[in-house]
DNA sequence: TCAATAGTCCCATATTTCCGAACTATTGAA
DNA sequence: TTCAATAGTTCGGAAATATGGGACTATTGA
């Protein structure tokens, strides 16, 4: 019903990005998106199976609000992609530097 | 009275670092420490003058717990230094990538 | 010994996070 | 059409966390 709201490239803030990625679950979601061809539904990218749907939905909203991912509704599910180009244009090297160290 | 507790290098976590730096005030504190020769008292590194002492103290504790700074008591004040060597050893390139974009 | 200074600790309030439950929207049958 | 199933969102209350005021501690310098 809602068409998702994404910040413009120039409105992506460093604090927002860091805050979004400071949660282990969200870090895993972004990693999963990048690893799996960068287009996953919310549940397919879920960092752990026992997470409540509402919590998962909220994590995706945080990532979206921070400008890290783009979400589009495709049928009954959402397709999520990491906004790599935008993040890299705004903060060159940052995403790579963070994700290089992410995951156990 | 308390001798400050700092995590060992290997106990510094990525999420902890990102979480600590996801607050604009703490980001400014770290920037100030690095800019000013890396050894400032808490109040000298305060990101804005009207912040409550207790809040400022708490921000330093968060940075300390995350392993970002080292605090030693020197007379009546604290001397804080960024643990650059430890952070760089653990997450090469991360700190630089973040701080490059910090603070307009 | 006393006042001043720099921080810390404790507590109450305010904000955020988490999750269950109810709701919406889309698809694919019957 | 209608109905069930699926994927997410939204709402509300409980739990966790941040903020700041005030009292406290420790050190220095009169």
TrEMBL record, chains A, B:
Keywords on record: DNA-binding, Transcription, Transcription regulation
**Protein's UniProt keywords contain Transcription regulation:** yes
The record's Pfam families line, in alphabetical order, gives:
HTH_20
GO MF annotation, one: DNA-binding transcription factor activity
Domain HTH arsR-type: where?
6-104
Specify the superkingdom.
Answer: Bacteria
Gene3D superfamilies on file? Winged helix-like DNA-binding domain superfamily/Winged helix DNA-binding domain
**Under which name does UniProt file this protein?**
Helix-turn-helix transcriptional regulator
| Species annotation | Rhodopseudomonas palustris
